[in-house]
């Protein structure tokens, strides 16, 4: 429950605002309507007064006697009878000089009319709002024509403004009732609108909404994972800085379809349906990303999707280095085992007193290690790669595998990305050792060739193992796929190889002919000669 005082809550303020707007509109409308009603009533009384005036002016008794000085005796009863019959305030008949012949107040008969008679005496009928001896009134004036068509007088018939106002007041209750009903309907509509707004904002007040927005922004900035919010149509409506870094999109892409802003077939398939996915690997712009997709539903309707991303590029690089280190450890273990056997042999020869053979054994062992080290150092420019091959040679010797290495064209050159090369060579050689392990006709054989073609590295690892079946070949580069049982580290090597080759912009091919051959081609693997000159 919100701690905001009731008079400051969004519902209360929205309702009050809507009621205020409704009341203001109704007041303005009521005033405008009242003025229109009053004007209409005045027009109606004016038209009625003019019609009565024209009717009186057309009476033969009026036309024939208006000029007679004794006409008041004859015309006053006629005028009063018309006034009573038509419910007007006065009927005044005047001659061509504007002298009254009739008037509701007999003492004013014989006096000149109090308002301008010129238009009527000029032969023009009209409706006027004027103030006479009886007060303000709406009146109609009509000329009196004789048989020759000459103007011989006028008739002025009017209704006092007091009467008009009284008639208007009779209509006021209806106006007020209509306004009250409209106000009631407006109040109900305002209440429903305020309640709908409260429902749409989940009962949160503006300050709470602002606080949530601030916390959301802080959270998005603090999350180390990339977060992308999509609407139901797949358009981007939220992206945090980490997602911008990983996908190469910015706030300018808000409103764009994600698959248009980030062309990726894998990403398009992942977002094709509102389905939940966990830890799906994607390769986008030379980055290995782990994606999680969470569809969002509100009241049972799909309203969007939240996509979170983690960068595994650095992680996989570290895994590759760890694999290399583990290989070196394994090589050291193999050398230690070999040295232990050698030491046992030396100990036995010493006990037998055969010192000359001890010297020969030590010299032969030292010559072999020095010769192998010298051979690798003379053909390979990278000490990390030399160390790896020495370690693999020791492992091969311990496992009874013939391991041959042929390097061509590496003289006076510098390798670019030797860490990736260690990952590639180390894992391919380890897989080849595993494939030829065990008794074989002629023994297990593994060969490694590395050739330089201008600045391109051609690398091949060949073994005489059982080969790879088509079913395995289709899945062998998938992370986690293995044919080595339940080893926790199995199923990673070839995936790392493919990622390293892809990151280097190279290609990898697999052939099966009396064994297995992995052929790797990496362009721009060597630094240009001029870059080596200090």
The mean pLDDT is: 78
* Poorly predicted runs of 5 or more residues: 529-534
User: What number of structural domains do the residues give?
Assistant: 3
Order of helices and strands: HHHEHEEEHHEEHHHEEEHHHEHEEHHEE
Number of helices in the DSSP assignment: 15
> By helix and strand content, what is the structural category?
alpha+beta
Percent in helix: 40-55%
Globular, elongated, flat, extended or rod-shaped: what is the shape? Answer: rod-shaped
CATH third-level topology of the largest domain: Heat Shock Protein 90
Which class of the largest domain in CATH terms?
Answer: Alpha Beta
Number of strands: 14
Q: Report the sheet-strand fraction.
A: 15-25%
CATH H level, superfamily name of the largest domain: Histidine kinase-like ATPase, C-terminal domain
Which strands sit side by side, in order, in the main sheet? 6-5-9-8-7
Largest sheet: 5 strands, antiparallel
């Amino acid at each position: 429950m919100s701690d905001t005082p009731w008079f400051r809550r969004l519902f209360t303020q929205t309702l009050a605002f809507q009621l205020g707007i409704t009341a203001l509109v109704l007041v303005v409308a009521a005033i405008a309507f009242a003025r229109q009603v009053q004007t209409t009533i005045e027009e109606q009384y004016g038209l009625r007064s003019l019609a009565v005036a024209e009717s009186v002016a057309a009476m033969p008794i009026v036309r024939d006697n208006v000029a007679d000085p004794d006409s008041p005796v004859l015309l006053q009863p006629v005028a009063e009878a018309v006034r009573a019959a038509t419910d007007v305030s006065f009927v005044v008949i005047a001659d061509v000089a504007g002298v009254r012949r009739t008037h509701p107040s007999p003492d004013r008969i014989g006096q000149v009319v109090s308002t301008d008679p010129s238009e009527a005496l000029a032969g023009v009928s009209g409706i006027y709002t004027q103030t006479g001896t009886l007060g303000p009134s709406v009146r109609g004036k009509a000329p009196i024509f004789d048989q020759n068509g000459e103007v011989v007088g006028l008739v002025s018939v009017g209704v006092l403004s007091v009467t008009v106002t009284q008639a208007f007041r009779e209509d006021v209750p209806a106006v007020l009732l209509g306004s009250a009903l409209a106000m009631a309907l407006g109040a109900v509509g305002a209440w429903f609108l305020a309640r709908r707004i409260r429902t749409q904002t989940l009962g949160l007040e503006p300050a709470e909404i602002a606080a949530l927005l601030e916390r959301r922004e802080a959270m998005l900035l603090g999350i180390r994972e990339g977060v992308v919010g999509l609407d139901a149509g797949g358009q981007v409506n939220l992206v945090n800085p980490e997602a911008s870094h990983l996908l190469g999109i910015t706030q300018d892409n808000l409103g764009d379809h994600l698959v248009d802003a980030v062309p990726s077939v894998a990403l398009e398939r992942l977002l094709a349906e509102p389905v939940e996915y966990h830890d799906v690997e994607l390769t986008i712009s030379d980055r290995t990303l782990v994606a999680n997709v969470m569809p969002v539903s509100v009241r049972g309707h799909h309203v969007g999707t939240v996509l979170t991303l983690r960068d595994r590029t650095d992680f996989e690089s570290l895994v590759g280095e760890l694999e290399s280190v583990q290989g070196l450890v394994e090589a050291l273990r193999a050398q230690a085992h070999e040295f232990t056997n050698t030491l046992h042999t030396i100990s036995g020869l010493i006990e037998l007193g055969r010192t000359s053979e001890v010297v020969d054994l030590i010299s032969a062992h030292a010559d072999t290690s020095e010769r192998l080290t010298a051979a690798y150092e003379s053909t390979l420019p990278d000490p990390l790669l030399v160390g790896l091959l020495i370690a693999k040679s020791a492992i091969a010797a311990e496992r009874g595998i013939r391991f041959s290495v042929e390097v061509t064209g590496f003289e006076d050159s510098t390798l670019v990305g030797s860490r990736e090369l260690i990952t590639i060579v180390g894992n391919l050689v380890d897989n080849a050792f595993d494939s030829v392990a065990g008794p074989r006709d002629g023994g297990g054989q593994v060969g490694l060739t590395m050739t330089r073609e201008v600045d391109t590295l051609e690398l091949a690892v060949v073994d005489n193992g059982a080969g790879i079946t088509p079913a395995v070949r289709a899945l062998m580069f998938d992370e986690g796929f293995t044919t080595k049982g339940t080893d926790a580290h199995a199923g990673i090597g070839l995936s790392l190889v493919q990622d390293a080759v892809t990151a280097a912009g190279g290609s990898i091919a697999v052939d099966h002919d009396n064994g297995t051959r992995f052929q790797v081609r990496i362009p721009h693997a060597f630094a240009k000669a001029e870059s080596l000159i200090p």
